[in-house]
Inverse folding.
């Protein structure tokens, strides 16, 4: 068995890793790190884990973690950039679920408002979107796992961008997410009575996934991409949908041609499902699974294209994708432990 | 007292009219028309109405309705176009909450897939958006009450369109609505287990409010407006938000200039509230009230503008606005019976 | 106009008082007290209040408050017991929405874990359930407004208790409440991702409304009442339902006899609605209104009775009832400002 | 591999069987029967199934089904009683998820209002609650899978009943369920706008799980059990909680003694988790899993006991338990395919 450690073990990202790895055929968790809850047992904090036995949470100890095979950082931005490098040098595979290695230095410092990771590791980190980067991930030691909105938006835009089917200055991304994306720390913005029966824009003009999306669009195209993006909180726990709109470079293209092109692009990528003509994705169709579902519509009047891309923000948008990446890095089957049918209803 | 009749009395729009008119100081309901529930009492069908006494539902009878002062059609498309004309000729004021008089003949027939109302009444009908049309509504006998998405989108776009601050071919409208907008008839799309914890696009490319928005934008501008619009079902009962994106004609304009311009435009219009800098609207801030709240953000990177426009789809998006229009038509104070503070939380 | 002050003006109870009093024909708010937000304006904290103008929040100042006619304490337990007495001595009417005057000294100290109010005021305080106490409230200077569960349970049990139709040791109360009952302070228990799609018992054996219910049952009967009560959090914002079960003293009584008896008991009490045979109440039927809806079923097999009692926890369960009490104390019509039809849907 | 057929393949129970069996190591689905959708593919009706390939739905054909090893009836009451007998005679194992074999003849006819199954099969059917009946299920050919409320209530009461710790005439069961329990057919009662933000009692005095619970309590005790039970719809999709109250036979017993006794009773039963002292179960702690979580509290004042029993109505309350039963009948490990950690949050 491959041994895994999880750092930041009390957040939603880590809980999802624990849920998924419990039945992974080749990876087992040997170390759960939580600075704030050292010595406690996961089932004491989380009654849903009753009956599942793990070692108690430990503090972050390099000597212990360097002996495992792969470490997942399910921490807020600012932790992995400091703690991951030594592990990588010690030969441990690292998957970072935070934003620490996703952006170039100046962008990170602008959008995250803190000092960036060392250049060496920014360069070494491979962006963990297997549909873009599978080959490189199979050689990577450090994986920078994408943001939830970035995964949805990139998967919805990449085939169009890669084929120059849309104009680089015409893209609008309207993102909608459930509340689990905001994490486990209570706040007025996540208080049930304030968010239930409510839809509201948030972080307008400031969401840190914007530069991430632009960066990786530019890796797939020679054009300069600047997107207009807004994010909204939706009264549901899990689920994320990006509705994206763009001007076609060739206005004669039809919905059917788009669907064909997307299916061709994602052939061999098991977690992207392109919906058939006139069937739109919905967040509930991917709940609890690692799928990203994409639906496409070319408007007959405007000739613009609309692409809808849905995923579970804790799965393909975070922990599911982290395991997909670890599978690739460790030479395992990409789908290992990730083939759950969505929970429905 | 002014006497009112309501046709289509068992739907959500009618129930909201009943709730609001109960305490209207100058209008009282004297006739509730329901073909399918003739003879029944409203409180027998709707336990929330227990203790409120009305005449039983009657069938549609011209002889009775021609004696009231104002009739509200809270019916599906296709009823008012046939039944309203005789009432208008008999001197009754009519407010139609359906789409029967909102579009020109050919657009109606394309988007509603049925024969349009007689030309004479299409011409006579005044579009019931008081912030656009107040003077005309004060003279009108037939009011075509706007669609819920159209109200939100138009209020969010009109000041920009009227001042030529955005490019006519650059507008994207991403609409999000609670489920009450889908009415009272059960269906798979409105079944709790299918819609709860779910966000999904619907009627993509086909929503009948699209031509309605374009028509009234064109009344406020000499340009040709073609908008890109998508609508989404959100797991909440009431509330509607349009997030709108456009290219500025002058990229140097700031968020503050936009806010000032919008405040100037809506001065003297009591139901539009322009949010201050960096404060975004949310559907919960207008719940149960007749307000439309608007927030604006000019993106520093793209120079495009984002406008967010929130309302309660059954209030400013339907029945609240219908009463606002009736007040104007009947020479009453515009805000009569409509000054409720939003329900919070 | 009668002048009112509200202490604790930033909580949900106070916001509901503000919403209701805005259109009260005889009471106007002249003072909003908030220690923690002194100097701020209510609309700056609460965007739903945009456009409604009030004096900024002030700190608690006796000299100011003694000049108003009535003060509402919408504060946590522990404030009114200290601050209300001087106001009462100064001739100000006081309605306390907290639990400070609801229990006898020893019960208060046991269940609230703090020192009780002075005996003199515990004795003077009139319990603000008008359906039990209307005459006394019309003479009262200090009103102890009931708890939300206590209101629902007492209204559901009083006719049976008063007529000795149920056995005193046989009562089970299963309470279910929306999250707004837990107030505005964020916590893990009220975090959207934890409470949405979740039903959970809380404060089992410890809810402070238990001794309150028993105390006022005993005022209506010579028997000793000890109830079994549990409370549950339900994923909704507003609404409270008590499902109550008891053994009948005379097992031959029918559902119809119960309904008749309850209707007789509540004749002349405008805010209690007894549902007809086989129609059960639901929290949505009272949303945003001051009604308490009651449905009754005698089980043909067990001969036990089930009583279901629904209200809006912020209305009849808190602020609506507080205004009902103030109306009585001030010699106004009991229903003044409170006749809203429930919001539906 | 063991071959399975599912009859009634388009309902929520069948979809959950499909989800679970997809990764069952020993059972594979070879036949999906749906009379109303013959010839269609499951992924065409259910987009969440995109990418999972099954034979198209077939009509019910005895010749085909008699060749599989086990057939699950996920049909409404009234189907299995007619169609299962021939399969059993043909040597096929049958698990019926409907109520057709749960009650004795007269009770079935009273509560289900239709003719009962043939006596021979009512007698042969083994009640599929493994915690009560494991040995018999290992020998059974026909399993009558319990109702969702019955599973929760019985698991919460059996240890007390079996040990005579509560009085037989003192039990109150207050049941709360999410909407998926009401199935997939749209109706006013399951329409989002009516049920969201709503808690309502339903089927009061008429729920067909009442006689089922009593029947199996009586198999575990010599006493005559008559329970008082109410059921409520809660605005969530999945999840069921029974809150149960009873008078202790020995009032000196403590919460700790109860917890010990329950842990002893369920030793060796992997899907029942008894919560520690003062920790209550919640429906979210079992979501998507086959667990039933139980918490117990002895009230210090009333000396009565409260037992809270939570499960996922589609898992341990239906399809999860059906697979648990099939595992036992087929000689497999009881937990096979069912060890998922609950989805959280």
């Amino acid at each position: 068995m491959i041994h895994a450690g999880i750092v930041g073990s009390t957040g939603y990202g880590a809980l999802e890793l624990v849920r998924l790895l419990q039945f992974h055929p080749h990876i087992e968790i040997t170390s759960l790190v939580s600075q704030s809850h050292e010595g406690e047992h996961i089932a004491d904090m989380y009654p849903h884990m009753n009956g599942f036995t793990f070692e108690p949470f430990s503090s972050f100890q390099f000597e212990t973690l360097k002996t495992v095979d792969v470490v997942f950082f399910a921490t807020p931005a600012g932790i992995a950039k400091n703690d991951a490098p030594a592990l990588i040098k010690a030969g441990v595979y690292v998957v970072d679920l935070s934003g620490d290695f996703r952006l170039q230095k100046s962008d990170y410092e602008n959008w995250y408002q803190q000092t960036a990771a060392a250049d060496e590791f920014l360069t070494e980190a491979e962006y963990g979107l297997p549909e873009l980067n599978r080959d490189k991930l199979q050689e990577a030691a450090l994986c920078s796992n994408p943001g939830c909105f970035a995964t949805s938006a990139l998967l919805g835009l990449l085939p169009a961008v890669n084929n120059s089917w849309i104009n680089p200055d015409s893209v609008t991304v309207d993102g909608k997410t459930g509340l689990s994306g905001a994490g486990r720390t209570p706040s007025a913005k996540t208080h049930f009575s304030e968010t239930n029966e409510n839809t509201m824009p948030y972080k307008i003009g400031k969401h840190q996934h914007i530069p991430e999306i632009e960066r990786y669009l530019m890796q797939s195209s020679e054009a300069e991409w600047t997107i207009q993006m807004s994010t909204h909180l939706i009264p549901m726990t899990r689920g994320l949908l990006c509705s994206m709109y763009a001007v076609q470079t060739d206005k004669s293209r039809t919905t059917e041609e788009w669907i064909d092109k997307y299916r061709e692009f994602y052939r061999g990528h098991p977690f992207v499902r392109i919906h058939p003509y006139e069937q739109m994705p919905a967040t509930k169709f991917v709940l609890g699974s690692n799928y990203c579902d994409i639906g496409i519509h070319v408007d007959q009047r405007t000739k613009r294209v609309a692409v809808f891309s849905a995923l579970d923000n804790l799965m393909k948008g975070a922990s599911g994708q982290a395991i997909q990446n670890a599978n690739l890095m460790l030479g395992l089957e990409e789908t290992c432990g990730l083939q759950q049918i969505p929970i429905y209803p």
